[in-house]
């Protein structure tokens, strides 16, 4: 299937145009995941990370999978909603085989990640999630990493690249530049755009909060189907990720995130300075590759709109073959190759 996902590319360097070398061989899917995590068959044949680690970092005890050599260049892979670390289960072995130390954390509200204090606000604002990853890097002694991400993870990765560029060796972001601004988002959109964001409006109501809490697994399966209409995932693949939604803070984090985005609830004052910087839509100067599939059913910006936000070495890759919103899981070879290529642009 990956043979169908041949990317069309546009590349920009600071001082000249050129093409990244795309010929580096990647290990096959069955490659080693490294000492800390191994691909293992799950029920129905869906592979899983075989083991997890935890580390106290900032507000959280973060659960993460690790793959590859401990002394390799670091790649941190960040998932979104409603997905989990298994979006990268077929990406990690490829990167590990290429020599990367791969870190795949469960974001706040997902999997085995837990808050350290009961009284910490279950806050889903973008600044809080970004600070989580800086805290994780500090806790693991990671000075710099390549970031590969989609959905919430891509927003987080964009924030790190814009605000802490010294920590980011390269950025691979599905759907491009996703840093948000609640004041701007509070303005109503045209009807078709509002329809595309129906779940955000749903979560703005108590009915939506209660409905999501009552059955997150069925809700999120529907989102998967909408966001990736041509992706024929099986039940074992979905259930593998659905277990991550059993986190006790999941509903609170998701609902707060979508309410905060449109200015219906506040965040925390400790993130005000960061959010003020993000509200200016800062540019991203680190080497970057943005990606988009040809069948993304979720709301996403046109690449032409955000290309100018990337002021350094930059390339956009468009994937054909029915690739939807969950690009790393639907096209893992292409995503892994982008992570490898981004520091070589």
From TrEMBL:
Domain (AB hydrolase-1) ranges:
76-229
Annotated GO MF terms: catalytic activity
Keyword Transmembrane helix tagged: no
Specify the domain of life of the species encoding this protein: Bacteria
Would I find Transmembrane among this entry's keywords? no
The leader peptide range reads 1-39
Q: Which SUPFAM superfamilies match?
A: alpha/beta-Hydrolases
For this record, an example GO cellular component is: membrane
Q: Which Pfam families match?
A: Abhydrolase_1
Q: Keywords in alphabetical order, please.
A: Signal
What the entry lists under PANTHER family is as follows: HYDROLASE, PUTATIVE (AFU_ORTHOLOGUE AFUA_2G14860)-RELATED, MONOACYLGLYCEROL LIPASE
* Protein known as: Pimeloyl-ACP methyl ester carboxylesterase
Organism of derivation = Acidovorax soli
- What taxonomic ancestry is recorded? Bacteria, Pseudomonadati, Pseudomonadota, Betaproteobacteria, Burkholderiales
């Amino acid at each position: 299937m990956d043979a169908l996902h041949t990317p069309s590319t546009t590349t920009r360097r600071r001082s000249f145009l050129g093409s990244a070398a795309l010929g580096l061989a990647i290990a096959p899917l069955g490659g080693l995941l490294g000492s800390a995590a191994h691909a293992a068959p799950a029920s129905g044949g869906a592979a899983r990370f075989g083991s997890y680690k935890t580390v106290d970092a900032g507000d959280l005890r973060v659960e993460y999978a690790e793959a590859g050599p401990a002394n390799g260049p670091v790649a941190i892979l960040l998932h979104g909603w409603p997905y989990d670390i298994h979006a990268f289960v077929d990406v990690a072995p490829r990167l590990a085989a290429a020599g990367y130390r791969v870190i795949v954390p469960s974001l706040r509200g997902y999997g085995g990640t837990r808050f350290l204090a009961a009284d910490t606000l279950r806050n889903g604002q973008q600044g809080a999630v970004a600070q989580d990853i800086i805290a994780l890097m500090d806790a693991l002694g990671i000075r710099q990493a390549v970031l590969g991400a989609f959905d919430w993870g891509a927003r987080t990765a964009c924030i790190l690249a814009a605000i802490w560029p010294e920590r980011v060796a390269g950025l691979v972001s599905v759907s491009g530049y996703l840093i948000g601004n609640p004041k701007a988002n509070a303005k109503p959109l045209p009807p078709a755009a509002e329809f595309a964001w129906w779940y955000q409006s749903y979560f703005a109501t108590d009915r939506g909060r209660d409905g999501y809490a009552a059955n997150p697994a069925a809700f999120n399966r529907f989102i998967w189907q909408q966001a990736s209409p041509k992706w024929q995932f099986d039940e074992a693949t979905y259930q593998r990720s659905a277990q991550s939604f059993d986190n006790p803070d999941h509903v609170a984090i998701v609902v707060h995130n979508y309410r905060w985005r449109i200015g219906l609830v506040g965040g925390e004052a400790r993130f005000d300075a960061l959010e003020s910087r993000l509200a200016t839509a800062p540019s991203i100067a680190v080497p970057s590759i943005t990606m988009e599939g040809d069948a993304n059913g979720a709301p996403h910006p046109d690449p032409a709109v955000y290309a100018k936000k990337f002021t350094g070495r930059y390339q956009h890759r468009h994937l054909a073959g029915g690739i939807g919103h969950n690009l790393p899981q639907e096209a893992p070879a292409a995503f892994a190759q982008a992570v490898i290529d981004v520091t070589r642009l």
